[in-house]
Amino acid sequence: MIATLGEVHDLGWRLRIYCREGKGSAMKKHRACTAYVDADLETLVWTRGRDFPIARLDSRMKCIRCGSRRVMVALEPPPVESRQRIRA
Q: Which of 2, 3, 31, 49 has a Cα-to-Cα distance from 39 of 20 to 30 A?
């Protein structure tokens, strides 16, 4: 199980951060935000440290489009070609 930023970086995985801001409540309606970004892992490792847990990363992020703190961090495996090079 991948648990830290250092592990994500070393294994060649990607972190994608999605905004989870919905359409709003009955009193306050707005358009749903669909922003997402691929995180810059090198910068995260430099600023947060290799041992920073991925599970705590969403509490430190903010949507670049709408400013919401309701974000989701998703792990994405490396492309198939990269995985084959790592195993060889």
A: 31
